[in-house]
Automatic annotation (TrEMBL):
Native source organism of the sequence: Chthonomonas calidirosea (strain DSM 23976 / ICMP 18418 / T49)
Chain ranges of the PDZ domain: 205-289
InterPro entries tied to this protein: Chloro_Bact_Ser_Proteases, PDZ, PDZ_sf, Peptidase_S1_PA, Peptidase_S1C
GO terms of biological process kind: proteolysis
GO MF, one annotated term: serine-type endopeptidase activity
Lineage of the organism: Bacteria, Bacillati, Armatimonadota, Chthonomonadia, Chthonomonadales
Name of the molecule in the record: Trypsin-like serine proteases, typically periplasmic, contain C-terminal PDZ domain
KW Transmembrane helix (keyword) present: no
Length: 302
């Protein structure tokens, strides 16, 4: 290998090592007493830690290990099950925090470094590209989800995804997209933290159904006059839920809510994030092969 190429690779390797070391100061290990501890990010210098809700399985007897090995008792401020975020508090100030990436945020094609502290493995890092950015909303506020081709092993959830400047892009979450390389964008975290710190909970529009994706064959699309090849079928209706009060039944196939087509559970969750509890919207559905509509007043999921 030519000397110049060797120098360039050495410089790149050293730069990545320095970046990982810098980010590592703001990435913690969250011990909830289970066999596989989770990662977390220091969100504020005043002791606020963010992690994934699925990674923090217990509500009590929590601890956070800082980059220097210091163990601190932690209390749970609250959880946002919809975005899978848990907010913790430790009794320590002047903690090192990561700069948040400014708007407009990450762009497709940018390099991204993932840093986490899974289990007892210590500091771990991997990298890849920002492969997609999915725009979402929460009550009209813009948010986004980041997809990356970086591989996230178990325990990486709650770690930091950063750009080459060391700015925080998002919170790694392996469960949010069922094992794909996903991070919750900074606005998702910001809105959840603000609401949990202020109210201790986050109200969400809620249907009260268990659903599964189903295919709509071409002949059924033609019969119904719809232009989507997938929808979701209700397999269970919760007692005393908004869905039950509206008259939804097991076997109903939901095509759209509030004029937005529903093609899978992720789409339904994304649409519900834009709506408010107590809001009345129209459901378009198929029951017994017949296209019909229902008015539903959305419930409140805390």
């Amino acid at each position: 290998m030519a000397t110049d190429q060797w120098k360039e690779l050495t410089h790149l390797s050293q730069a990545l090592e320095n970046l990982a070391s810098l980010v590592a100061k703001s990435v913690v290990r969250v011990d909830d007493g289970t066999s596989l501890t989770a990662s977390g990010i220091i969100w504020s210098a005043e002791g606020i830690i963010v992690a994934t809700s699925h990674g923090v399985e217990r509500d009590e007897e929590l601890a956070v290990e800082l980059h220097d090995g210091t163990m601190l008792a932690a209390t749970l401020v609250g959880r946002d099950h919809d975005s899978d975020i848990a907010v913790l508090r430790v009794d320590k100030v002047d903690l090192p925090i990561l700069e948040k990436v400014p708007e407009p945020g990450p762009k497709v094609g940018q390099l991204a470094l993932a840093v986490a502290r899974p289990g007892t493995f210590g500091l771990c890092a991997t990298m890849g590209l920002v492969s997609a950015r999915i725009e979402t909303q929460r009550l009209g506020l813009p948010e986004h989800i980041i997809y990356t081709d970086a591989q996230f092993p178990p325990g990486f959830s709650g770690g930091a995804l950063v750009n080459v400047q060391g700015q925080l892009l998002g919170l790694i979450d392996r469960i949010f997209a069922r094992g794909h390389g996903v991070a919750l964008g900074v606005p998702v975290i910001q809105h959840a933290v603000e609401s949990l710190l202020t109210h201790g909970r986050i109200p969400h529009a809620y249907l009260g159904v268990k659903i599964q994706t189903v295919s709509l064959p071409p002949h059924l699309q033609n019969l119904l006059g719809v232009h989507q090849d997938k929808a979701v079928m209700c397999v269970h209706i919760e007692t005393d839920s908004a869905a039950e009060r509206a008259g939804l039944l097991p076997g109903d196939i939901l095509l759209a809510i509030a004029d937005t087509p529903i093609t899978d559970p992720v789409t339904l969750r994304r649409v519900l994030r834009t709506l408010q509890a107590g809001q009345t919207v129209e459901l378009k559905l198929v029951r017994g092969g017949v296209l019909t509509t229902l008015q539903i007043t959305l419930g409140n999921a805390l």
